[in-house]
Write a structure and sequence with these properties.
homodimer, mainly alpha, Arc Repressor Mutant, subunit A, 10 helices, elongated, DNA-binding
Chain lengths: 199, 199
DNA sequence: ATTAGTATCAACACTGTGTTCAGTAAAGGA
DNA sequence: TCCTTTACTGAACACAGTGTTGATACTAAT
């Protein structure tokens, strides 16, 4: 019926796309290989030529999203960001991170959502923590004990992700990428101010 | 072999306990009714006398934990807390919330964890948001637009939960209940100060 | 002694899994 | 053009777990 013989790459993409659709419909828990195959318009046997099970598809999809996210988060220079934010301007690398998330909004929303994967939010927090907060914490290093710093990092990484999740859940339309960046800036600025002056 | 004929209540408890054990071992995804029954030392048929499927057990367990959590969170009076924290003292209702979580540490850690349920963290955040933040936001009401407030709530609820998760993941032994309450206080005080004075 | 409540055990059809194997259709190099 | 490779199909298989049913048994309260 359809134009068969896709390339290896296209089929894998179709399966990952089918996973997003199926999670949204029935939740990851209830997704079956059978459903995945029929949603992707491939034979069930073909599925097993590419993936071991639905968990491997999820892992592949998450890794794809995290890699792209990380490539943008990397460009955030905490100290530079801090100075630009203080002047009330938008810090561009931050806007690009949010743009990246908006481009894959459905995937992020679904996987982070109630029907998604409990591991993904932890992995996203790790990206923020490793790429931003580890470099930012230098500011208050002499002033704070390392125990407190661990919790400060957990606090901030969760907070940043929480705001993104709220935005995704609200359909990411009421607030533009620039507005969300502004909201983040206002919130983060609160903390940056304090970690460098108080305690 | 064992002393059979438990009460309805005891069997349900045994099943819920088996769920926690099984999630930790294989992850909620891979938990089966068969495993649950054998872990709880009951017949598989008996399981169906109490629950429809593993999802219903999870729902029951989550509701149980959330109800208890909420009963403690209710006693937190944000304004009162704010004044006590400013003096450097511990706010007792807050300590009791953390004690409640410590008492069910395994359950909270496992369900919030990577192998747990993606919906639970959202529900916990809602408890914090509804019971604490909704009453706290009155402070800055005239000063902030409601859009920003929504995101501030998401920011804080996620941050609070993030710190608790970090604590649970670290085995909740390195830091005592009182120390965690202090850490929370220091972090929350940052924000409270700002929401009531700045902007 | 009867009854209600709780649990056991075995059997059932059913759905989804993971694998295998024979077959097909297109792309492209010799 | 022939031939090999690559990518997929379709049918079959044994196997795991599901959800239900019907017969049975123990225990406690009335």
């Amino acid at each position: 019926m359809s134009i068969h013989k896709m390339m290896n790459f296209e089929t894998k993409s179709a399966i990952k796309n089918a996973l997003i659709i199926q999670i949204e419909e029935v939740g990851f828990e209830r997704v079956t290989v059978k459903n995945l195959a029929s949603t992707a318009n491939i034979n069930r046997g073909t599925f097993y030529l590419h993936y071991k099970d639905k968990f491997e598809v999820m892992e592949d999809l998450q890794q794809e999203l995290l890699n792209e996210l990380e490539s943008y988060v990397k460009h955030v220079q905490p100290l530079e960001a801090f100075h630009i934010l203080k002047t009330g301007q938008l810090y561009q690398p931050f806007v690009e991170v949010i743009t990246c998330i908006k481009e894959h909004a459905t995937a992020f929303r679904v996987i982070l959502g109630e029907q998604g994967s409990p591991a993904f939010s932890k992995r996203m927090k790790e990206v923020f923590s490793n790429q931003i907060l580890d470099r930012l914490s230098v500011i208050g290093e002499e002033l704070q004990d390392s125990g407190f710093q661990q919790y400060l990092k957990a606090f901030l990484a969760s907070a940043i992700l929480g705001v993104i999740q709220e935005w995704l859940d609200r359909g990411n339309e009421d607030v533009s990428v620039e507005e969300l960046a502004t909201i983040h800036s206002r919130l983060v600025l609160f903390i940056c101010n304090l970690t460098s002056t108080q305690y």
